Amino acid sequence: MEKIEHTTISTNGINLHVASIGSGPAILFLHGFPDLWYSWRRQLLSFADLGYRAIAPDLRGYGDSDAPPSHESYTVLHVVGDLVGLLDSLGVDRVFLVGHDWGAIVAWWMCMIRPDRVKALVNTSVVFNPRNPSVKPVDAFKALFGEDYYICRFQEPGEIEEDFAQVDTKKLINRFFTSRNPRPPCIPKSLGFRGLPDPPALPAWLTEEDVSFYAEKFSQKGFTGGLNYYRAMNLSWELTAPWAGLQIKVPVKFIVGDLDITYNIPGTKEYIHEGGLKKHVPFLQEVVVMEGVGHFLQQEKPDEVTDHIYSFFSKF
């Protein structure tokens, strides 16, 4: 871990903290919520040993990167803009791209908007969902799962932050990372995260040191930056109207755990395995479903995920 270099890059009007190691073809790793560059720590080391330049930023709002105060500064266009500027600053023309959770959503949109900057994509956890012109995404989730669905609960500024503040940050991180329940997470306001049972003992893949690292960063930064991605979902929907109907035309491999809540959303398995995803991502070459694996697959099964990524990128 001490071999990983940490720098600050100025891009798109903000400063991003960037972790990187190695030399060779560049791979850009994008994290999600509630996460940091640190979620890719094992992949950074592995790919440096494999002859790649492995790069993982704290996305805007997270860790040691800047956190603009308004949720309107967290659309997918803002974040893709950050990444284009990051690549320019690093002197990287085209990159191998890997995303997870919100990082996966950003990765899909980077391939949509700037396919000229992407050699190939390995995306995990979150499938590409084409823009529905008739309904905003938060409204769609509310109609499907109700107002207690976590994305809906995250919408009101300050409300969920107050809830989080009543829970020890280490326990909160543990709850997020170790959940094995594939059902849609719904948290009634009357219960809140503070009312959930204590998390189980840490699994072998997540150490006290890991949890402490996350807890320290989120205690310093707060969760608002990460939550603002959810609060900007409807605004992103409005701003991405010009790209409605376009396909993603870069080579893609998709990986998901069968216990991931995203994989168990009604209709998702059929969409992935019966041609729906391929229709919108025509250069989709492989789909991997990892058995017995939850949402944070790159941490739960780091060596397997590294092998899946390497087997794909080594073709190019």
Structure, explained:
It is built from 14 helices and eight strands. The chain is of the alpha/beta class and 316 residues long. The chain has one domain: Rossmann fold. Strands 1-2-4-3-5-6-7-8 form an eight-stranded mixed β-sheet, with helices on both faces. The model has no long low-confidence stretch (mean pLDDT 97).
**CATH-defined fold name:** Rossmann fold
User: What multimeric state do the chains show?
Assistant: single chain
Q: What is the CATH homologous superfamily assignment? A: Alpha/Beta hydrolase fold, catalytic domain
Strand content: 15-25%
How many helices? The count is 14
Task: Give a brief rundown of this model.
The chain is of the alpha/beta class.
Give the helices and strands, then pairings.
Layout lengths: L4 E7 L2 E8 L4 E5 L10 H9 L3 E5 L18 H15 L4 E6 L1 H12 L4 E7 L12 H9 L4 H4 L5 H7 L3 H10 L29 H14 L2 H8 L1 H7 L12 E6 L10 H6 L2 H5 L3 E7 L6 H4 L1 H12 L3
Parallel strand pairs: 3-4, 3-5, 5-6, 6-7, 7-8
Antiparallel strand pairs: 1-2, 2-4
EC number: 3.3.2.10
Pfam family, one: Abhydrolase_1
Enzyme class: hydrolase
